[in-house]
Amino acid sequence: MVEMACRSCRQIFDIPRGVPPICPNCKTPTLTTEWAGLIVILDPEDSIIARELGATKPGRYAIRVGR
Ligand SMILES: [Zn+2]
What φ, ψ does residue 20 adopt, rounded to 5°? Predict the structure, then answer.
């Protein structure tokens, strides 16, 4: 498994090696291994950080995502 972050929604997913990196959330091939800083958001409704990141679902999010 590789931890990959989505450039679009910033959510982090465990992607099995050899599988095309498609974000399960956005359904687009926007995943990258170039990310830094992990934030776990449990309650997006009640989190300033979630708002800042544009996170709408609970999950793990990358603070910085590479191009
Ligand atoms: Zn995404």
Answer: -60, 130
The domain defined by 2-65 carries CATH number 1.10.10.10: no
17: CA distance to ligand 1 center in Å?
Answer: 18
**pTM score of the predicted model:** 0.86
Q: How far is the CA of 60 from the centre of ligand 1 (A)?
A: 12
Residue 13 CA to ligand 1 center (angstroms) comes to 9
| Owner of token pair 């990258």 | 32
Q: Express each pLDDT in 5-39 by its tens digit.
A: 999 999 999 999 988 899 999 999 999 999 999 99
